[in-house]
Amino acid sequence: MGIKVHETEKQFHLYNSKLSYVIGECRDGEMGQLYFGRRINENQIIYGYQTLAGRPLCCAVTDDENYTKELACLEYPAFGNGDFHGPAYEIIQPNGSRVTNLMYDSYRIYEGKKPIPGLPASYVNTDSEATTLEIVCIDDVAKIEVTLYYTIWENYSIITRHASIKNIGQEEVKLTKAFSCCLDLPDYDYDWMQFEGAWGRERYPHTRSIEKGIISIESMRGHSSANFNPFIIMKRKNTDEFQGEAMGINLVYSGNFMAKAEVDNYGKLRFTMGINPNWFAWPLASAEEFNTPEVIISYTKNGLNDLSQNIHGFMNNNLVRSPYKKRPRPILLNNWEATEMEFDEEKILNIAKKGAEAGVELFVLDDGWFGKRDDDYAGLGDWYVNTNKLPAGITGLAKKVNDLGLDFGLWIEPEMVNPDSDLYRAHPDWVLAAPDRRRTLGRHQMVLDFSKPEVVDNIYHQLYDVISKANISYIKWDMNRSITECFSQNVAPEYQGMVYHKYIFGVYSLYERLIQDFPDILFESCASGGGRFDAGMLYYAPQAWCSDDTDGHERVKIQYGTSYGYPISSIGAHVSKSPNNQTGRSMDADDRANIACFGTFGYELDLNEVSEAEFEQVKKQIVFMKKYRELFQYGTLYRLQSPFEKNIASWMVVSEDKKQAIVVMYKTHKTPNIGMETIKLQGLEENTIYTVNGKEKIYGDFLMERGLGTMGSDEPWYMSDGDFTSRMFILEA
Ligand code: GLA
Question: Is the minimum distance from the CB of 576 to ligand 1 under 6 angstroms?
Fold first, then answer.
């Protein structure tokens, strides 16, 4: 890993064993993109790939008629000077001009990486893990200094990027767009993969061809959203799970975002991603600086599994910060689907007690423990215990749960308020609401104005009071509606364009304070299920509730899709009751568990209500998960067969030393009288013999070349069992 500087040509070649990323000065002094792809020799100086001769209707920006920005690949392009694509940033200057032109000024290289103030970002554990290049560019007329940050990582095929924009003039300017990255690529022979959905069906992969014109996804909901995830893959047309070139771009941000691919009629592809410029306007006073969120750009020549494994490793090692980093996650039992808000202490303790008997490690009390929270019309904002339900308070309940041998966890939804709450009655101006307009409700609640520090402070003190007085090991932080009427009351008009971003700053700051105060607590983020499952959140909460849809069949698709951009250790997955609350579908307890194992694992039901036989299954599942959870959560994941393409889906995890692997196969529908189904495995040691489920002994190469079939004398399960069934295969070397 390193950065080779060609001083005379002002070219910078960032490289590690897998990738090269080369940028350099263009003819007019702006920074250009020269190469991004497989590692090439860093001594190569790149000439002649940038300066295409001027054409009719292209504009020369210097006296050099042959140089036009329209044809050049640029690093952080501006508006208004001959590059007619969407710019990476836009600044309105005091005279109203938006024209800017950034010229290369200087660079700095250092070992390690600096944090981004107030924002989540990847970090180094030791400086030798990464090298950072800062390129300073200046617009002398607009009096703007932009620093482009690039970090190249030693152990991952990854580059991280962000930009900071500083006003070096005397007068205030206004930033109306500030993307985190721009990738100008010389051809557009790529497919675009987005991860889309809605509540209950989050992050389904969807692939479309990149073509001339623009394709784009975004969120304007105030959170990253279940609708489009802030993660994009651009892959070559022939790339599949096992081979081919692809790049993944994760935005480390939880608010409004945009990702966009623009292809011009010369075939140049511009990819930009960052904070959504819609309704964004950030005043920058003299000497003030704005930092964009970071993007994680991963690269592979070896298919989508390799791309995902690279992202998983990087997130586990260099993004997640909790003491639970790389630690097996506790097996929890959550009462939400069992009781919703109708509970008292006795009912809760009964559920917890049965969980303890089954071997669960952590009991989580979900929504309904505070204020006048008997239904979702009241209580949010009032973070003091409802003693009608819980006479011993959270402190007393936590103690009783601890006495059962379980850790205790608690649900909160800090960003929200119900109109029927003491907080709202006292501070109606603390919600986001436009003057003289209807205050739109979502789930009967409004969004607190987290752009205001005093609002965040109030919630912090209320929560601190509860958390500090009880033995709490885990917090589930929920967020159950999108932002409407995004207007901060009683502040200057100029402030309004900052609100969405400041809101997310408020969320991050509250997380940070609670993490600093209670460093041992495990946080799980949640937003009506998976409505804010993004790399920004993972910096604070190492796991995220993946979806409110706990139906095993639906979970196969949701978790499969999520795994493209996020590690298994981050995927909150629970076994819930059958028939399922969301879909009414029935599945055997072991089939439900086989899917939840590929996640943080837990239960979301009242175990007192399951049959004795099912309770025995649960006990065995917990023993099994305790034995193998490290492998599930931190092993190398291979997606083998997609549930979006076939009736049988399959994926597997392999231990680092390749001595253990677990494969799951899942069938949607039983099809009678079909041929042999085998699944070719991945990642095994070729000449090692693996025992499959303690019986058959098969060489790794055979399992990878011919595949895993129906073992031994078993009747083929995909013909004998019913619909929505699965099989788990444990392979031991
Ligand atoms: C959201 C969450 C659920 C549960 C409820 C409580 O929907 O996703 O898991 O916590 O809120 O109101």
Answer: no
